[in-house]
Design a protein that fits this description.
About 10% of the residues lie in helices and about 35% in strands. The chain is mainly beta and about 140 residues long.
Length: about 140
């Protein structure tokens, strides 16, 4: 019993000094993600359209590839960037392109929408510093 208490005390002491999140993957200061198409202010008729994604000074690779200066795209729709150091969610506002895609056909309902790219590392965590595009607005009719 005493041994179990000592082991628990040691575990608590170690965990108290361990960061709650993993170290972020570094990126070059001059890396840039950008949306090639659609352009800011584009009016889309019909709801289905292609998004073309660009990246400068880094490479695109599939999820799970842990190499320097590479990552994969995430398209953020009608949402803000996730909190610093947290994994990028996978839901209706966060599209993951884990196969290394640089273009995708998506469909959105009528209305005004925002689009923004965010590069994720092998674990879907943004790089340090983050590599993201500017947020653009489009209108779907």
């Amino acid at each position: 019993m005493r041994r179990a208490i000592i082991c628990a005390a040691v575990a608590i002491a170690v965990l108290a000094h361990t960061p709650a999140f993993a170290a972020r993957t570094s990126s070059p200061e001059n890396a840039e993600a950008y949306i090639i198409w659609p352009a800011d202010g584009t009016v889309i008729h019909g709801g289905k359209f292609w998004v073309r994604m660009g990246l400068r000074n880094m490479g695109v690779c599939p999820k799970g590839v842990n190499m320097p200066n590479v990552g994969h795209h995430h398209l953020l729709i009608d949402t803000d960037l996730p909190p610093w150091g947290e994994q990028i969610p996978s839901d209706r506002n966060h599209f993951h392109f884990g196969a290394g895609e640089t273009e995708a056909r998506i469909e959105l309902p009528p209305g005004k929408h925002t689009l923004q790219l965010l590069l994720g590392d092998h674990d879907h965590i943004p790089h340090d510093p983050p590599v993201n595009s500017k947020k653009i607005s489009i209108i779907v009719r």
